[in-house]
Amino acid sequence: MLAQQFGLIGTVCNDGDGVLIEVQGKSFSINAFIDTLSKDKPTLARIDAIERLKKRHIDHTDPESLKTASGFEVIESSHSNANTGVTADAATCDACLADIFDEHNRRHCYPFTNCTHCGPRLSIIKGIPYDRAQTSMDEFAMCSSCLREYGSPEDRRFHAQPNACPECGPKIWLEDNTGKLVSTAVKKQRYKNPIPDMPIIKAALAIREKAIIAVKGIGGIHLAACACDDDSGVSAVKKLRLKKQRPCKPFAIMVKDIAMAARYCHISDEERTLLASSAAPIVLLEKRKRISSNASKLSADIAPGQTTLGLMLPYSPLHHLLLNVLNKPIVLTSANASNEPQCIDNDHARENLSDIADYFYYIIVLLKIVWMIQ
Ligand SMILES: [Zn+2]
Ligand SMILES: [Zn+2]
């Protein structure tokens, strides 16, 4: 922790105005601490202003003066009026990506992996200050391993409020359009040898077969469909347009990585940086006129008549895992009919999407990956 590097003692907590840090130490150490804090702030932190308030002078030659504090601690948040904002959700960081693709890691294939550098923030918050108890993660008590990370200043999950793992965190499941459970998350040890009953693998297979899947993730529920038509002409994108009553407005696609993006579009350095940023935005890119022979051809219905394509990279472990198994681009769009508000909760999604699915009964299989977080 930075304060300890400068030999400072004191406390830090969230309050309604932001972060309150109380430090004791020599003046030059405190100045250096504040200077470094401004320059090397945590990845997702935004510092709008630093207000300094000198509380009292301490005689450092007198041990009695220092008896009020020892070390540097994170203390309970103070619940004053909220005058501060909350960081936006952030795309999965490289370290968490390495975790989910490492078969020896306890978070191997875990779709809700996050840390202080990435993961949900704004979309899970119920109140300020931003603490686990004020988020939708409060119903998931951390296991001993997660608690150890949460309490270790040297760990990148130190005070990561949505910290979770397969033992203690949210689970995914897959259900069909009648509400019948198709597949549920398997126990941790079985992740080491992925098998086809995993919801993500089943979902990827269904997308390959041109099913439309409702995926509940950061920021609401989205419909996912294969962005590539079959050789026989079967098109999930066409079906999606009918279901959403969206005849021609362009869809955005999500690709596995930059390499897959480059097969379909020209990408400048600036666009590449933007795509890979923690905001994971949809970036409008110039379509390639010709794609390489080993790339699956995109459906002509994605952005009819356009020379550009809206493209994004996976922003949550769930999307990374899905795209990795599928190894093809998907169309990802909000799960609502045109001009209707976006579905954000499971019941709303079931009600609305089941109506649509009834219309397509026997024509299309509608499956859902549903987050447990409400
Ligand atoms: Zn991370
Ligand atoms: Zn855990």
What keywords describe this structure?
374 residues, three-stranded mixed sheet, binds zinc ion, 3 domains, DHBP synthase, Alpha-Beta Plaits, alpha+beta, 13 strands
Topology of this protein?
Elements: H1 2-5, E1 9-15, E2 18-24, H2 27-39, E3 72-74, H3 94-100, H4 144-150, E4 172-176, E5 181-184, H5 188-191, H6 199-208, E6 212-217, E7 220-226, H7 236-244, E8 252-254, H8 258-264, E9 265-266, H9 269-275, E10 283-287, E11 308-312, H10 317-326, E12 330-334, H11 346-359, E13 366-371
Parallel strand pairs: 1-3, 6-13, 8-11
Antiparallel strand pairs: 1-2, 4-5, 4-13, 6-7, 7-12, 8-12, 9-10, 10-11
Helix pairs in contact: 6-10
The structure holds zinc ion (ZN) (2 copies).
Describe this structure in words.
This protein is an alpha+beta fold and 374 residues long. The chain folds into 3 domains: 2-74, Alpha-Beta Plaits (2-Layer Sandwich); 86-170, DHBP synthase (Alpha-Beta Complex), CATH 3.90.870.30; 172-286 and 298-371, DHBP synthase (Alpha-Beta Complex). The protein has helices at 2-5, 27-39, 94-100, 144-150, 188-191, 199-208, 236-244, 258-264, 269-275, 317-326, 346-359; strands spanning 9-15, 18-24, 72-74, 172-176, 181-184, 212-217, 220-226, 252-254, 265-266, 283-287, 308-312, 330-334, 366-371. A 10-stranded mixed beta sheet has the order 5-4-13-6-7-12-8-11-10-9, with helices on both faces. A 3-stranded mixed beta sheet has the order 2-1-3, with no helix packed on it. Strand 1 and strand 2 (18-24) form a beta hairpin. The longest helix is centred in the C-terminal third of the chain and has 14 residues, at 346-359. It binds zinc ion (ZN) (2 copies). Residues 142-143, 145-146, 164-165, 167-168 line the site of one zinc ion. The site of one zinc ion has 7 residues, from helix 3.
